[in-house]
């Protein structure tokens, strides 16, 4: 044998040569697929997405594709140019042995251990035939190279040859292809389980749905019982009084109770409202497997490993019957939903049906109940209360579960023999009907679906299987990778199922429940029970039109998905997922209205979506070629158009236009001109709702709503935590939508709110005024009356229709904290005032809106010091001196009051304040008042009384009061202070006030629309004008004969004042010693309409930036470094912010400019916005201008490359690390640039790691082995080709010098494969190869195996081989050994290794 090439690897299970290139694919038992160049002897690529061994692999003859099949039951089709898996084909139920492409048609044949061969169309990604006949594993299957034949070999000792000529004819004539599914009953149904909720927890052993609320109980192997809200996805409560696993749990149908049974032999009855266990039932002698409440009587049935079933009365808390007969563990026991029967399953390989009719009679006639205790002994050995009606034998191993059909006399059971059996019973006997085979391990649980003719089972083979109960064939399999299933539960009212497995549970549905419907003027066309129906809104009349399905073809998720109607032609397009996507075209005869029995022959065709685009034209999406086929009503193609994006669904967007959906965007495509009319980045869009005038569109995703105009110009985005289900536009241009739990509204600016809470989900079809018409999940039309006042009010505010706002305020009951907060947020606190009853909230709103009169009213009612103080501050800001004075009086703030009288020039009241200070014995206050008044004698007197004689003497002397000075000189004697010589004293007098009386002048501002109008509501004209003209502010301090009072008696003054006000009420205006009217400017009666408060300052731009953005760079630019750091920590796991300090400062300084106004005025800071233009609206703030951009990083990258080439490794390392530390603060616009940034992180990370290793190597002068290892690892960094050549040359040189010739030869071969441009490099490599061939060995062993793929630890610089555990940096994705968990990443020097992070956010498009 002339060996050309040989590899060393894991066991090779599949091989395939490329037809043109010197390549070979090898699929390994380890799950890896290797692509080798057998001529060069090099590994080109590796692919490792399979879980488990890959047994089959095959190259396509002409396309850059190959196919693989493995033990994970998956067939994967790969593009080796793109280095990724394109898609996965699912359908096989066991290990896949071989796969092969057809040489001509787009087919793949696969052989599997599930005893079938499948033929797939890889273009449409569907299974087109299942070849059955082998009765053991099928080991291989392959196409004939020329003829329409397939050969297969099986462990059933046969080889079979299959004729697939008919399949070829079908493929050649695609018109017949729509008949394929109906002609081939062996095809698997293409249904999906729609997961609604999933938990991660300990193993779940028991499940129970609540009949009314969206709750589910899960009992865990750890002993805890969890109560979940599966709609909200939240844990409501947990109960953990059991010792050991809890295997059974069940909700009561009507009471707030549930029952549980566990391995502690106890049955506990709980009240979930009281959050506690009510009582415990004892009697079982071993583990309790299941517990269940009776639907009518106060009974509980329990099954136990003590081989008995017990029935308990939970009201009397006693055991009323013991059912004995099983001779092994009883795994489950359940009541019949209607009859007096119990079914039980046991490991004794039997299913037993028990008649408990006598027990019911005993319960109904309580007089006989006194005999019960005496009969307990006979009951224990199988008394007369419950007798065995049938014993069902047929399973070969222990039976784990049995359950009744909800209406038919059927039982289904699952056992350790991996079989599901269906049993039928009548009044006298029961017998086995059929056996369902397919599970690969013990069947854990099985039950009938409540609303469909299907059986659902789960097993320890990690799968849930769905079976057709009438045909007794498998429909679908749902698998988990690592978790065995233990329990199933069905919702008593809805089509929900739940399954418990090793690591939690899932709540799911088997098919969509949204009815297909289409709106046309006053009519709604919709599908219900295989009939097309029409509902007229005006008359609320519902009419059946035509049947739309052949009998027997309605299966899981194969029902109508969308419906499109052409009113002029009276034609309907019905689309479904059948056959990978198909449509049916019906022309409704006019005489069929009201009859509904006319059988229409539909025109059918294949297509992912189909919609009418004109009166007699409809468009069909052909996914395989990504084009739209425009057809006429004869189903003939009249036009083809290639779509501009990879489209997976099309929607109507106006006559001749289509809205095309991709995964992350939608576009509007003009079919006539073949141009794009609009493009918008969105999450995955599920539904599209146009307004009646086609000017606005709502794009509904799973958890968001995007509102745009007809050109897809974005208006607003709304996010929901609960799934969005449907929506429609009302006459006002408000979008009304439903979630699972609510009807909500969305205004044109993105504001939203709740209109109504829903009991069950509904789908809105049309809105007439305050009536919402909707379809429920049963296909029934329901009108719902709503109150639209709230959103109409908000819409009027938004559109500035203030007359409408005024009318609604006067005539409607709008209230609530949400409305108040909304009005505050939108800048209408003055309007919010009129919805508030709480005085504290009114006071805050009045201050915010500057309405000082309303604030005074509220402050008087609250009468607390803090509120008077805040009122004084606001009044001072407005210059309303009367209210300032009154507020200071109410708070007894004498110091502020004195200063207030000083600056307003009120000398008389200042004198009174000095008297009050004297009464209060407030020396400093008295002195200050004397100082303010310029009263020198009073100051001398105060100083003398306080004992400060020297100060009193100096004051009297300086001011020329010689008599007093001489008297004080005598008292001072020798302690007489000396006065400074040569200094001329001047009298210190208080300055003259600018304005001596009245309020300060205010800016003249025209009053808002709401001010006068709302104030006048409910008041007479007379009251209005009287208060405006005569009300003055400020209340005198009733000092009285203060000279005659003793010091400290000021409290008498205060008390008298309070009493006086309480008895008289109102303001004591007559006590104020005001100047004459001629000197005081009086407010004119009509002044209220012309003079108003100054406008409030707006929100700072930096605050707007922070509120509108989730990008750390924009928070830093706004100066909010704290939130920027929190964002970076959450998104990238960054903990070390020292390297970012200077970048943060640069961002902040660079996004602001500074202007000097006047010499004494502070510098004005002006925000610089990104993309600002003169045409931009002044009210719309753009994002900040940033000093860092992507092009700067490209320049640094080039500098880093040059430094690396020149061998300046330290300088290059600085450049590359600077790039890594700048990237978190870069903002780009498009998704493409985001991808480029992510690529740049990987590139730079590889260089930083490699350069660090090279610098480390240069430091190690005395460790030759470590030097070689580091040089070798450097070659595995993903560098640019010139740098990789240099790294290989370096590693080759180092190893050659150390006499490790074999390793040096490897690097020489690698270097030659890169085709080095420099001849010196190639020559050196060839010389090393020649020298090594003479002595191919290594002197010293290295920790380096180039055959085994690895990554290098960023800290220890050691290899982490495939399969070894590692942790990564959440930012730069550098790999580390597990011991580095929690340490700072040595590559980026920013993030914590192994930290949780949500990922890099660098563009607003990611947030949208």
TrEMBL record:
Residues 532-776 form the COPA/B second beta-propeller domain. Keywords: Cytoplasm, Cytoplasmic vesicle, ER-Golgi transport, Golgi apparatus, Membrane, Protein transport, Repeat, Transport, WD repeat. InterPro entries: Beta-prop_COPA/B_2nd, Coatomer_alpha_WD-assoc_reg, Coatomer_asu_C, Coatomer_complex_subunit, TPR_COPA_B, WD40/YVTN_repeat-like_dom_sf, WD40_PAC1, WD40_repeat_CS. One of its GO terms (biological process) is intra-Golgi vesicle-mediated transport. Residues 1055-1090 are annotated as: Disordered. It holds the Pfam family WD40. Residues 1055-1076 have a biased composition (Acidic residues). The keyword Membrane applies. Residues 1007-1408 form the Coatomer alpha subunit C-terminal domain. WD repeats lie at residues 47-88, 89-130, 131-164, 239-280, 281-322, 323-356, 392-433, 436-477. Gene3D superfamilies: 1.25.40.470, YVTN repeat-like/Quinoprotein amine dehydrogenase. Its main location: membrane. The keyword Repeat applies. Residues 817-959 form the COPA/B TPR domain. It is found in: Cytoplasmic vesicle, COPI-coated vesicle membrane; Golgi apparatus membrane. It comes from the Eukaryota. Oligomeric complex that consists of at least the alpha, beta, beta', gamma, delta, epsilon and zeta subunits. This is Coatomer subunit alpha. It comes from Fraxinus pennsylvanica. The lineage of its organism: Eukaryota, Viridiplantae, Streptophyta, Embryophyta, Tracheophyta.
């Amino acid at each position: 044998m002339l060996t050309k090439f040989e590899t060393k690897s894991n066991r090779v299970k599949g091989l395939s040569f490329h037809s043109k290139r010197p390549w070979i694919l090898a699929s390994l038992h380890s799950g890896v697929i290797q692509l080798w160049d057998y001529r060069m002897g090099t590994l080109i690529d590796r692919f490792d997405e399979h879980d488990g061994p890959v047994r089959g692999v095959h190259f396509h003859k002409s396309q850059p594709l190959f196919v693989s099949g493995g033990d994970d039951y998956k067939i994967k089709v790969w593009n080796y140019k793109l280095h990724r898996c394109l898609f996965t084909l699912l359908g096989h139920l066991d290990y896949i042995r071989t796969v092969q492409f057809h040489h001509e048609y787009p087919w793949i044949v696969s052989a599997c251990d599930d005893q079938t061969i499948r033929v797939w169309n890889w273009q449409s990604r569907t299974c087109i035939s299942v070849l059955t006949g082998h009765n053991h594993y099928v080991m291989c299957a392959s196409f004939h190279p020329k003829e329409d034949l397939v050969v297969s070999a099986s462990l059933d000792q046969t080889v079979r040859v299959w004729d697939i000529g008919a399949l070829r004819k079908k493929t050649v004539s695609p018109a017949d292809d729509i008949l394929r599914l109906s002609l081939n009953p062996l095809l698997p149904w293409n249904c999906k389980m729609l997961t609604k909720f999933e938990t991660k927890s300990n193993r779940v052993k028991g499940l129970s749905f609540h009949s009314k609320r969206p709750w589910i109980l899960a009992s865990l192997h750890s002993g805890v019982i969890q109560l979940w809200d599966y709609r909200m996805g939240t844990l409501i409560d947990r109960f953990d009084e059991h010792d050991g696993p809890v295997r059974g749990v069940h909700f009561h149908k009507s009471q707030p109770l549930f029952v549980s049974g566990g391995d502690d032999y106890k049955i506990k009855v709980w009240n979930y409202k009281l959050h506690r266990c009510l009582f415990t039932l004892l009697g079982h002698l071993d583990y309790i497997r299941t517990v269940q409440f009776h639907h009518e009587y106060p009974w509980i049935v329990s099954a136990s490993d003590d081989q008995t079933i017990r029935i308990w009365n939970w009201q009397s808390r006693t055991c009323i019957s013991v059912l004995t007969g099983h001779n092994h563990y009883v795994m489950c026991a359940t009541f019949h939903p209607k009859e007096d029967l119990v079914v039980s399953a046991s490991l004794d390989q039997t299913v037993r049906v028990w008649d408990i009719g006598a027990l019911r009679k005993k319960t109904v006639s309580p007089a006989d109940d006194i005999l019960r205790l005496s009969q307990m002994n006979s009951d224990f050995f199988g008394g007369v209360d419950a007798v065995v009606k049938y014993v069902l034998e047929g399973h070969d191993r222990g039976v784990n579960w049995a359950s009744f059909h909800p209406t038919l006399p059927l039982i289904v059971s699952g056992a350790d023999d991996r079989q599901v059996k269906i049993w039928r019973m009548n009044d006298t006997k029961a017998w086995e009907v059929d056996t369902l085979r397919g599970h690969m391990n013990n069947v854990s649980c099985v039950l009938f679906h409540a609303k469909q003719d299907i059986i659902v089972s789960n097993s320890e083979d990690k799968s849930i299987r769905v079976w057709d109960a009438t045909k007794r064939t498998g429909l679908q399999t749902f698998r988990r990778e690592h978790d065995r299933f233990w329990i199933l539960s069905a919702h008593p009212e809805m089509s929900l199922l739940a399954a418990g497995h090793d690591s939690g549970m899932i709540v799911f549905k088997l098919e969509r429940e949204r009815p297909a419907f289409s709106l046309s003027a006053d009519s709604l066309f919709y599908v219900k029970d295989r009939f097309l129906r029409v509902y007229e809104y005006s008359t609320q009349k519902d009419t059946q039109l035509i049947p739309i399905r052949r009998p027997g073809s309605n299966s899981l998720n194969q029902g109508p998905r969308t419906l499109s109607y052409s009113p002029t032609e009276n034609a309907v397009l019905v689309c479904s997922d059948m056959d990978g996507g198909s449509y049916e075209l019906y022309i409704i005869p006019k005489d069929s209205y009201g009859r509904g029995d006319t059988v229409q022959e539909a025109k059918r065709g294949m297509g992912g979506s189909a919609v009418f685009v004109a009166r007699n034209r409809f468009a069909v999406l052909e996914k395989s070629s990504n084009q739209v086929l425009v057809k006429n009503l004869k189903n003939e193609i009249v036009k083809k158009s290639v779509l501009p994006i990879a489209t997976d669904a099309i929607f109507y967007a106006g006559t001749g236009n289509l809205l095309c959906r991709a995964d992350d965007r939608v576009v509007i495509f003009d079919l006539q001109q073949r141009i794009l009319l609009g493009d918008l980045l969105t999450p995955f869009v599920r539904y599209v709702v146009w307004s009646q005038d086609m000017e606005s569109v709502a794009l509904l995703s799973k958890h968001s709503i995007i509102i745009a105009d007809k050109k897809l110009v974005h208006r607003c985005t709304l996010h929901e935590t609960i799934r969005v289900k449907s929506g429609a536009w009302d006459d006002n241009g408000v979008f009304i939508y439903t979630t699972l739990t609510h009807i909500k509204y969305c205004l044109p600016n993105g504001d939203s709110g709740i209109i109504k809470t829903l009991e069950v989900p509904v789908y809105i079809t049309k809105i007439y005024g305050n009536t919402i018409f909707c379809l429920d999940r049963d296909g029934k039309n329901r009108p719902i009356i709503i109150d639209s006042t709230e959103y109409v009010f908000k819409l009027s505010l938004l559109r500035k229709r203030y007359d409408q706002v005024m009318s609604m305020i006067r005539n409607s009951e709008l209230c609530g904290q949400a409305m108040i907060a909304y009005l505050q947020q939108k800048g209408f606190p003055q309007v919010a005032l009129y919805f508030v009853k709480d005085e504290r909230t009114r006071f805050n709103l009045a201050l915010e809106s500057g309405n000082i009169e309303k604030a005074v009213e509220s402050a008087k009612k609250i009468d607390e010091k803090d509120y008077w103080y805040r009122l004084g501050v606001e009044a001072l800001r407005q210059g309303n001196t009367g209210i300032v004075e009154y507020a200071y009086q109410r708070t007894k703030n004498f110091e502020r009051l004195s200063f207030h009288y000083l600056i307003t020039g009120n000398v008389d009241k200042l004198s009174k304040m000095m008297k009050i200070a004297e009464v209060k014995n407030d020396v400093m206050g008295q002195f200050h008042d004397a100082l303010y008044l310029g009263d020198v004698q009073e100051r001398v007197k105060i100083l003398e009384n306080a004992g400060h004689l020297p100060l009193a003497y100096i004051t009297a002397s300086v001011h020329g009061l010689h008599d007093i000075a001489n008297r004080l000189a005598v008292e001072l004697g020798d302690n007489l202070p000396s006065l400074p010589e040569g200094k001329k004293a001047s009298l210190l007098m208080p300055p003259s006030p600018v304005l001596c009386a009245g309020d300060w002048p205010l800016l003249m501002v025209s009053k808002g629309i709401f001010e006068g109008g709302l104030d006048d509501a409910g008041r007479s004209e007379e009251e209005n004008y009287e208060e405006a003209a005569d009300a003055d502010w400020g209340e005198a301090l009733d000092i009285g004969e203060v000279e005659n009072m003793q010091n400290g008696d000021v409290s008498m003054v205060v008390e008298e004042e309070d009493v006086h006000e309480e008895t008289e009420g109102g303001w004591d205006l007559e006590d104020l010693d005001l100047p004459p009217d001629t000197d005081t400017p009086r407010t004119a009666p009509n002044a209220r309409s012309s003079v108003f408060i100054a406008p409030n300052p707006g929100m700072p731009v930096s605050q707007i930036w922070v509120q509108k953005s989730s990008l750390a760079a924009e928070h830093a630019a706004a100066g909010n470094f704290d939130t920027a750091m929190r964002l970076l920590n959450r998104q990238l796991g960054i903990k070390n912010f020292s390297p970012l300090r200077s970048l943060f400062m640069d961002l902040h300084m660079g996004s602001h400019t500074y202007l000097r106004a006047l010499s004494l005025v502070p510098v004005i800071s002006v925000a610089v916005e990104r993309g600002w233009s003169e045409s931009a609206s002044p009210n719309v703030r753009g994002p900040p201008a940033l000093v860092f951009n992507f092009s700067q990083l490209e320049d640094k990258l080039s500098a880093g490359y040059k430094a690396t080439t020149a061998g300046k490794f330290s300088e290059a390392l600085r450049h590359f690390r600077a790039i890594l530390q700048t990237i978190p603060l870069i903002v780009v616009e498009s998704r493409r640039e985001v991808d480029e940034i992510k690529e740049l992180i990987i590139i730079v990370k590889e260089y930083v790691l490699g350069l660090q290793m090279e610098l480390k190597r240069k430091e190690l002068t005395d460790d030759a082995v470590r030097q070689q290892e580091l040089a070798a690892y450097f070659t595995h960094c993903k560098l640019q080709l010139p740098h990789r050549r240099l790294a290989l040359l370096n590693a080759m040189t180092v190893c050659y010098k150390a006499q490790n010739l074999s390793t040096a030869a490897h690097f020489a071969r690698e270097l030659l494969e890169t085709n080095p441009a420099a001849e010196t490099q190639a020559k050196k490599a060839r010389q090393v190869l020649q020298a090594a061939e003479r002595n191919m060995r290594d002197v010293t062993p290295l920790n380096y195996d180039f055959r085994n793929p690895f990554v290098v630890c960023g800290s220890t610089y050691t290899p982490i081989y495939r399969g070894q555990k590692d942790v990564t940096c959440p930012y730069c994705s550098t790999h580390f050994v597990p011991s580095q968990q929690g340490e700072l990443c040595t590559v980026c020097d920013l993030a914590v290794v192994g930290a949780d992070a949500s990922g890099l956010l660098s563009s607003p498009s990611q947030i949208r």
